[in-house]
Amino acid sequence: MGSQEVLGQAARLASSGLLLQVLFRLITFALNAFILRFLSKEIVGIVNVRLTLLYSTTIFLAREAFRRACLSGSTQRDWGQTINLLWLTVPLGVFWSLFLGWVWLRLLEVPDPNVVPHYGTGVVVFGLSAVVELLGEPFWVLAQAHMFVKLKVIAESLSVILKSVLTAFLVLWLPHWGLYIFSLAQLFYTTVLVLCYVTYFKTLLGFPKPTKQQTLPVSRMTDLLPSILRSRAFVNWKEAKLTWSFFKQSFLKQILTEGERYVMTFLNVLNFGDQGPVLLRTYCLYVLLLAINGVTECFTFAAMSKEQVDRYNFTMLALSSSFLVLSYLLTRWCGSVGFILANCFNMGIRITQSLCFIHRYYRESPHRPLAGLQLSPVLLGAFALSGGITGVSEAFLCCEQGWLFRLAHVAVGAFCLGATLGTAFLTETKLIHFLRTQLGVSRLDDKMT
User: What is the arithmetic mean of pLDDT over 108-121?
Assistant: First the structure.
């Protein structure tokens, strides 16, 4: 596969992942709005904060390091050893689900069963669903390494849609089930997701040498199961050591990136009150900083040596203590918005450190990648003008004067969004050219194959 083809596939994979995330967020938003009409906000809060955090933490700690190690470098590796290594995520997931489940049930405050019934069952089933999802890890990594983009899109989209349909049906017909509804839906989601990957590979390997099968390092389904390898170690120890190195890094990353949710879960001090609009506006700033940090920190970790990564991690660990102190102070001062402001401060520090590293890295080079952070004055003016117009629209049209004025306010917002996107299209020519070139190459490759 040529470099241009690989780049095109990577761009297509990234764009499909972005579209999936947008789709999932929209579905989740609509589903939560529907659910709140039938279930209490306490039950929805327990699911979205505690149980989802339990599930995501178990998944992250059990598989993140394995994914990064097994997807790094070339696809030309001993896949028998790699698959054996990936199956270790299952017992590791069992350990983390049991340990974290015990923490969630014994160390955290258990909700009032009269308000949130079946909490224990929810903890057990969400932990079980994490283990079920890990059963598909060898299939996922193999598909990702060979860039089966359509498989990822179809599997994840189908799983989320079916989960949403099941949740809505159970909420509508059996609202008294409470947490049983979300537990069954989560287990159903992970089961469908794994079955999609297993069914795809079973079908692919069952036909006589199709185009994609010729590039696969396996020829039958039993090759995707753990096995004793003749004259070779059970796993590639170099790959295993790399996994351990990534695990230490990922463990710290989980603490830093999920700090707000852990504080919320363990302290239970948030009181959102009537801060909805202010909370959302502040969160928009946090999302922007998350996007910048994702790009800068990704390059930083890729370019750093092991010694530099270790020093960086210790620095981040020290900063995490200041984040907790700042979270406490800002929460007492301005309520739940304080948590978001503290996270913005944390992201700002991490972005600054990454920018300093990138600047030093390219100091003797003619390349200036940080110039990409500089937006054109015209686009910045479009952002400022849109903000001013929507602010005036909110003051005069929203939201106590009836639906007609609300619709007018939405129309003003849509117009400003279209104008801003149009300005970005005209001014960010390099970005538009890159997307057109790479996505165009991906479509051409699909037609040729």
Answer: 87
